[in-house]
Amino acid sequence: MPFVRKVVGLVGFLLVWEAASRLSLVDDRVLPPPSDVLVRFGLLFTDQRFVAGAISTVLSWLIALLCATGIGVALGLLLGSVPVLRLISMPVVEFLRPLPAVALIPLAIALLGTDAQTKIVLAAFAATWPILLNTSYALGEVDPRLVETARCFRVSRWRRLVGVTLPSIGPFVVTGVRISASITLIAVVGTEFLAGGSIGLGQYAFLQGTSGGRMDVVLAATVFAGLFGCLVNAGFLAVQRRWVSWGSGEVAA
């Protein structure tokens, strides 16, 4: 039933959008009807520039998310395990966490140029914080009885980490990665759009909108990015339900 309501809501939104465009309530050159956008969406995959841009964006997203996951989990485990270090570093973390990645584009270009590494670094920077904070917070939620039992049986620190700590914090880490997956996509596309120099969905949409005035193509590319983000989020939700369903791990980003 919830799925049906979501479908009805989406169809209703598209019908209102279609009617507004067809009745000239909005300029169809600025906001073309969804029927035109969906047709253009199907034709995107015959455009080699779009395909190359989509591949570049997806690969950059994946690399940035993997880097953010490795850095976020490692730092989260470190800060969560050493309370003094966490207390000292938290002001720095709280200062850096809300910084928008796109605001650092001039600095990144000066240091790295305009190639793919710029959008990867900025996206990884933006995506690290939810994973770091979720991991650090999760360490405080580990059942102390499990840790004490492992110590009583003289289990090594490495085996306690693998057998007790990581399974306990799994739901929180997966939630952090799921949140960061969306942040990474936004940062990658936003950097492509604003920085230029590197192919990608953002640069493709920018060129189509400014030089060609093709808003139907711009919106079709946006639909692709939105569908990709929805599929990624659904994939992480499936992982949570299948392998880490014993806890929600919901922590504010």
From TrEMBL:
Domain of life: Bacteria
Subcellular location: Cell membrane
CDD domains on file: TM_PBP2
Topology of the protein relative to the lipid bilayer: Multi-pass membrane protein
Entries under Pfam families matching the protein: BPD_transp_1 (PF00528)
Main subcellular location: membrane
SUPFAM superfamilies in alphabetical order: MetI-like (SSF161098)
Keyword Glycosyltransferase among record annotations: no
Sequence intervals crossing the membrane: 50-83, 95-114, 185-206, 218-239
Gene3D superfamilies assigned to the protein according to its UniProt record, in alphabetical order: MetI-like
Family: Belongs to the binding-protein-dependent transport system permease family.
Listed PANTHER family: ALKANE SULFONATE ABC TRANSPORTER-RELATED, MEMBRANE SUBUNIT, TAURINE TRANSPORT SYSTEM PERMEASE PROTEIN TAUC
UniProt-recorded name of the protein: NitT/TauT family transport system permease protein
